[in-house]
Structure formats: C-alpha cells, structure tokens
Amino acid sequence: MIVAGEASGDMRAAGLARALKNLDPALRLSGIGGEHMRQAGVECFTDITELAVIGITEVIKNFSRIKKVFDQTLKQIDSSHPDCVILVDYPGFNLRLAREIKKRGLKIIYYISPQVWAWREKRILKIKKLVDRMIVLFPFEKDIYSKYGMKVDYVGHPLVDEIIVGCSRADVLKTIGLLSNKTTIGIMPGSRAKEVERHLPCMLEAAQKLFKQNHERQFILLRAPTIPMKIIEPILNENLYPKCHSRECGNLKHIPIKIYDGPAYDGINAMDAVIVASGTATLETALLEKPMVIIYKTSWLTYAIAKAVIKIPYIGLVNIVAGKKIAEELIQNEATAANIANAVERALKRPQIVDELSAVKTSLGKPGASLRAARVVLEEISIS
C-alpha cells in the first residue's frame, strides 16, 4: 500500500509504482493517490484531494474530513493486510498513520523524508521506532539518519528523470499567443487552492510593476492540474481589470499574460525567470536552470509556529540543497508586489545564477532514482 497526500507526492509515488511493476509485474499496489498513481497502476481507494490541505488552520477546518480518510485507510489496511506500507512525505498525516500501522505489526517504509532536519532533528528517534527503512532523496539526509542508527538509503531525486521537455520554447509561446523575442516571466502560484488564493494576487501585482518598467516583457501563468479555472479566473479579473478608467489602469489591463496548462516542464522551459511558490517547484525550476524568486504566504498561526520551530536559514528547497541563497526568498509580509518585482529585476541581471543552478542539478544525483528506490522496497519486503 502506498500513501501520498499531495500533488508532488502523487508524482513521486507514481514513479516508484511504475518501477515496482517493472521489477515485479505480479505486485498489487493500492493506496491514497491522484491521477499519476492511478495511471501507474495503483488502485486508489481515496483521492489526494481529500488530504490536499496545508497549514494549521486549514487542518483544523478540515479535521473531520482528514480523520475520515485516516480511519478509512486503517480499515483498508486491516482488510487487505499488505506486505508493506510505503508512506510518501506528508508527515503530519503519515507519521500518525505509522503509529497505528506499527501496532498491527506491518512493515513500514518511508519514501521522501519528513523535513525533520528543518525543525526537530531529534524527532528521528521517534521515527526510528516506527519506520523499518527510510528512503531519502538528498545525500545530506542519509548522513542525518545514519547518525541516529536508522536504516536509510539515498537514491537521488526522481525529478532528474522526470524533467523532460517535449516542446521548444518558441513553440510553447506561439501556442499560447506570446512572442519568442520578448523576456518571458513565469508565475507559479502553487498546486493547492489556498496557495493560489494567497500567492496569485501579489504575483499579478508584481507582474504589473515589471511590465510597467519594461513593456518588452510578457508573462505565463502556469496552472497546476489540481487548480480549476474557477479559482484562477476571479483572481485574474480582480487584479488585472481595475475598476477605474485612468490611462494607467488602461495600460495594466493590457498586460500580456497567458495561462498555460500544458506539460509543466515545457511551460517552465519557456520562461526566462520565474516567480514561484516554495516547494518542489523550486527544484523543478532549478533543474531547468531558470532564475527564480521564491515566495510563500500562509495563515498567521501557521507562520508563527513555523518561525518558532524551523532551525534552518532557508525554506526554498533549491537553497537548502545548494547550502546557500541562490534564489531570493520573500516570506509572509515580505512577499509584497514591490519586493517581488525588485527581486525579479535582480535575478534577471545575475548571469552566474545559471552556473549555481547547474551545481544544484548535479547534486540531485544520477538518473534512475525511482528504480533504485523500488529495489530497496523489494529488498526490504523479502527480509523476513
């Protein structure tokens, strides 16, 4: 059984599922996932949309729904008694689930480590009691878990295999009605509804400022498949069509921005710089060697708690992997339109950033991460 709770976990779990099926076609895979996992042959008894919430306040508001999925998952485990349960990231849900699974004496593998190194490293002592084997994507994670005597395997990051560009920059821009000779700035507000609602307005306002400073710029709004147009359209209408008739407002109405909902990596590849919500998307952008500005907004309660417990200087994965600030980070009240626009201007003027992003790409390991992870899973299952 494979349990993922959000869009990026669904993609990573799907890659693992395909690799497992290739190694052993007789395997039966079930779990919680999305379209990617279903396409990979996983029998999903619950969709990830039931769990796709983030932040303390959202969890509280959706507690009854999350609890229902939690109880349903345990019923599925009790009825099917899987040989192994693979928990994919999503620690708030999955570590609680691990405690219940452990009581049932089942084998637990954790794929994509909870980011304990960012807040409470010593929580690994509790994880060690619950998880039989940890599979990690970054080399520094193996060092941390090994220090506590946990069984851990570093396999590299599956994004190295997944980042495939199928359409040229010029063709993508032509398809959506933009020009290939203009500077193209990407807007990537996130894959969850709340992220888009919090990020997109200030991103659009920043785009207006960037266009006002230079009319040779155009913009791509990358829409995640998990975000329906009914969420995006009202935000666009409110922020790009001001209720006034001045010359300035009239100019802003004609900002050249297009929504792109095709293959994400083709879209990112068409960008010259990116305004991106913190998360896996920063690594995707790094692998395509695009300068970026990272932003993140959440509820004030979640922010206050996170600020109190996070022990590392960065939140952007690209900066964490690099061990230094490659991309500017604008968090919470710092994520204003003016700050974002100024940071994009600086990113466009830093040619050395491409070399720094290339170094991050190298540090993510060689191709074949999902296959290596699948071999670890089968090896662990075979241990009596």
Q: What does it look like?
A:
With about 375 residues, the chain is α/β, with parallel strands linked by helices. It has two domains: about 1-160 and about 370-380, Glycogen Phosphorylase B (Rossmann fold), CATH 3.40.50.2000; about 170-365, Rossmann fold (3-Layer(aba) Sandwich), CATH 3.40.50.2000. The protein is built from 19 helices and 13 strands. It has helices at about 5-25, 35-40, 55-60, 65-80, 90-105, 125-130, 140-145, 160, 170-175, 195-215, 230-240, 245-255, 265-270, 280-285, 300-310, 315-320, 335-350, 355-365, 370-380, and strands spanning about 1-5, 30-35, 45, 85-90, 105-110, 135, 150-155, 185-190, 215-220, 255-260, 275, 290-295, 330. Helix 6 (about 125-130) links the parallel strand 5 (about 105-110) and strand 6 (about 135). Helix 4 (about 65-80) packs parallel to helix 5 (about 90-105) and helix 10 packs across helix 17. It is globular, with a radius of gyration of 21 Å.
